[in-house]
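Obj.: predict assembly geometry.
Materials: sequence records (below).
Method: joint structure prediction, all chains together.
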Amino acid sequence: MDISLTPRLQLHGITKRFPGVLANDNVGFSVLPGEIHALLGENGAGKSTLVKMIYGIMQPDAGEIRWNGQPVVIHNPKAARKLGIGMVFQHFSLFEAMTVLENIALGMDAKIPARELEARIRQVMDQYGLHLDPHRTVSTLSVGERQRIEIVRALLLKPTLLIMDEPTSVLTPQEVEQLFVVLRQLAREGCSILYISHKLHEIKALCETATILRGGRLVDTCDPRVETSRSMAEKMIGGGLKDIKKPAGRTLGAERLVVNRLSLPGAGPFGIPLHDVTFTVRAGEIFGIAGVAGNGQNALLLALSGEELSRHPEAISIDGAPVGGLPAKQRRLKGLASVPEERNGHAAVPEFTLADNTVLTARDRLGMVSAGMIKSSSARTYAGEVITAFAVKALGPGSTAGSLSGGNLQKYIMGREILQKPSVLVVSQPTWGVDAGAAAAIHQAIIDLAAAGSAVVVISQDLDELLSLCDTLAVINGGRLSKPMQVEGADIEEIGLLMGGIHGEGAVHAV
Amino acid sequence: MQFRLEKRQEPSKLLQVLTPIGAVLVTMVLGGIIFTLLGYDGLGAVREIFLSPLLNAYKWQDLAVKAAPLIIIAVGLSIAYRANVWNIGAEGQYIVGAIAGTGVGILTNDMTGWWIMPLMMLAGVAGGAAYAAVPALLRVRFRVNEILTTLMLTYASVYLLNYLLAGPFKSPTSMGQPQTVMFSADQSLPYIIPGTIVQLNALLAVIVALVAWLVFSRFVFGFQVRVVGAAPHAARYGGFSADRTVWLAMLISGGLAGFAGILEAMGPVGRLILQFPAGYGFTAIIVAFLGRLHPLGAVLAGLMVAITFVGGEMAQITIQLPFAAVGIFQAMMLFLLLASDILVRYRVRSVRRAEIAT
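Observations (raw structure tokens):
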């Protein structure tokens, strides 16, 4: 039999059950040699579980994996690498304080002398145009460069199947293009690629086949080049996609949030300091802040929410009143609400009930406290209102926040802040790890809040999200904010360059 | 057949209540076996230590005397531990509280009036709180770990007590004994149940627990402590200052330990003596955990541990068990409780061998 006709990887009836969930239900598909195969699905559709079984991190409860036609049991990642399966994870496992070479050496199964390893690394880098100095310390590298380490690490083992888990979520548009060049070259050389993503235009541009999962089940295997983004999205969420409605012909009102030369020292040895961040958001305006992860977004959110205080009160003002020196509690009373990126343990306390979680941020604005005593009935009532208004799937105000799924908890947190009718709302990654249905609901809520006259700041790594949501956009890089630009008629190329740190002067990361 | 731990979606509420009881039961079984192997009457030891104090109505008053300081200290520690403030120096704060209150007592020994007793108690609370303020300051200002500082200050407090009893605090009529004067009638806690040795401190312990429970569950302060302990980032986001919480948790736990100290001096002991430090401050750590860091749980756990103290004294007499055995039983209870905590968050599932990844 011609080897090229035997699928490199075949899955038959793969089933994996966790307590309370069927993560994969009878999933089967095959990947041909040299094929770039997309695995598409919403968060929680079972993509990660499936690839973890292929990479030997978990074992299926039922079903069969065939490798080059032979049934195999992949006991652990080491066994997977031995077969020729490489994987690049979404979250990198790199030691910040060590060099590229040291990090790669640590991840190798076999012990290879440093000199020989370096020679092999340089050879792989030359072959695929992945340029990186092996002696640089990881903490000085951009996210795109860190991903390159992971790719090099996988390629050193000469894989015949490379699994990429959401590789572009942290890259600039230019870095995405460079990555695609490498992946196409690999595929031409016969390496199969299993590409996990929910970004449809990327899949259309890169992949030849797409397997779509929904709720743990395979819904379709299709050719993304002939599908439209919309048709694939509808298969992915299993229903019509609701368009977000932006009221036409809005006029922006008075300046509500003014940030004027906000600077903050970075927290910790790898913290990003903020330099002279300046922007203005008017009533009714949605202001987007784009940027690659780790360029000061967190510091900016903490500075705006009042969790970190500025030395200059005038650095931040709300409706004309300087608040830069006020802590979070007082800023809330002035009308500023915020939603940080991390849901569990930051925006909400997972061990607490939903009612108690309203006390966290709404106690003063909504009068939940009298004489130091918490009015638990008003907390419960408000929690109930949020649950109803934002269609949160929860048993009731008494459920713990930790028992909610990511998307539902995010809807709850957004609802908790939005129903307080803030004059300024700052949100970071509003739809991170949230399914498409919940994401649409959250976007609509943000638009409605702005339409009612609030000023909204959205910090996101998802450029598509910002482009569809915002009126104005600025890019944060190395703790500096670019000049704001109108989203209408914005140049994606220019935004990408700004995200990569090309300011003309003061470039922080080399691209 | 093998077993595997699986994380529960939510911690089991039922097991949160059952594990302390289970820990006590397993302690009884293991303790019985250990002391049998050591050549003692193991079964008798368990019976004497855990059951006799309960079955013997005459011993109930001893339980109240032993439990009162444990409960008062453990309530304060519960609040501190909930806020992730690891004050393990309650013994030192207990001693300094007693010293401060006794200082007032020595000055007012010749006076009469209803105000003397509250003033001594107030001084006790202030003394304990002030002694806890040192590690609080070190932690907030210089990020010094409070586990070390609170523990080390405990030893310093013992020397302070020894010094004072040998000099400034020594009673002129003590015939050279290192002890203070006896407290006057207006300085001693009244007996609240006629014909027994149960004094006001037992009632105060229950009141302290009830008030703490109310504050903890209904007031913003209690909410603040819980948030800071459970999720420090969320606390900052919610507008609660972590440093302020450390201060409050330290001062409250130290203040209550000091309160327990002066009550002990004004009550069962009647003066300050060299043997005053009885280890209540350390045992209260066990009580706090056994009571699930809940003020009302501390009451039940305080009684439980008091049973082992009273029973241990009885076992010393009846079956010649060394008193150190009580410490062993108490330590086993704490270890078993901490170990059984895993069952609250995880469930045990048996798995077939084939499922186990090699």
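Conclusions so far: Chain B touches chain A at residues 6, 9-11, 218-221, 223, 226-227, 230-231, 233-234, 236-239, 241, 355, 357-358 (CB under 8 Å).
To do: check interface contacts against the pulldown list.
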